[in-house]
Amino acid sequence: MTFNQQHAIITGGSSGIGKATAKLLAQKGANLTLIARDTAKLEQAKVEIEGMGTDPQAKIITISADVSQQIQVETAIEQAIDQIGPADLLITSAGIAHPGYFQELPIEVFEQTMAVNYFGSLYAIKAVLPSMVKQHKGHIVLLSSGAGLIGIYGYTPYSPSKFALRGLTESLRGELKPQGIHVSIVYPPDTDTPQLEAENKTKPLETKMITGSAQMWSATAVANQIVRGIEKKQFGIMPGFEMRLLGRFHSLLAPVLNWYFDRIVAGNRE
């Protein structure tokens, strides 16, 4: 896939991996629609992208919307298509995480996490799909997580939402392929983003110990892997050796990883 003059819609495009991916796509000549809740962050992202010396003919618009609200997502994508044209690429990067101990977390945390991470992606796909089907081409990219491959201590709201994205993507792949639409799922490792900073405020000590041994990636490094994966039409995009290993052998590795995680938790409690 080449990106010149292609219309890329990115939810969660105001920060983190979404913004980093938007910058790379802009450098390759893409027209962009950035969707997120915070208007100020959206405008700042637009200023940053335009300040990179991108093609002055490229169109960059921002639309404020809460992806957990179906009507807001549909309206935002309708506006984007009206202003720029049919969507060629959709990247659902909007997401939240609120780690904690299962018994201490209110049910609202589980509901909101699923609403943003899973249904937010579902609503966006439903909204862009008619234009892609009409063109008989397009590419949909969903951001999952390593926690979408194996459940991790302290992530009982988050892991299920990312597992759900994996199931959705695997189911969509074969259904959309005959219509000329490609589907990809990304499993980023821990990435230095505002979301991770927010997670660390409620993350149990055991979770910090489990995730602390993994390599931290920059948002730009992950974005590079995403763009490369889209260009190659990869279904599973797994940045780094650890994610590739987990992505390909997670079922085989699960017993060993669970034993390792249990040892960390037991050691902490001693």
What does this protein structure show overall?
The structure is a single chain. This protein is an alpha/beta fold and 270 residues long. Helix content is 53%, strand content 14%. The protein has nine helices and nine strands. α1 packs across α8, α3 runs parallel beside α4 and α7 packs antiparallel against α9. The radius of gyration is 18 Å and the shape is globular. The protein starts with 6 loop residues before the first strand and ends with a helix. The model has no long low-confidence stretch (mean pLDDT 91).
In short, what is this structure?
Helices cover 53% and strands 14% of the residues.
Any low-confidence stretches, pLDDT <50, length ≥5?
Answer: none
Distance between the termini: 53 Å
Strand order within the widest beta sheet: 3-2-1-4-5-6-9
Quote the average pLDDT.
91
Task: Give the H and E element order.
Answer: EHEHEHEHEHEEHHEHEH
Overall geometry comes to globular
Q: How many helical elements? A: 9
Major pleated sheet: 7 strands, parallel
**Which structural class matches the secondary elements?**
alpha/beta
Report Rg.
Answer: 18 Å
Q: What portion of the residues fall into strands of 2 or more residues? A: 5-15%
The number of distinct β-strands equals 9
Helix content: 40-55%
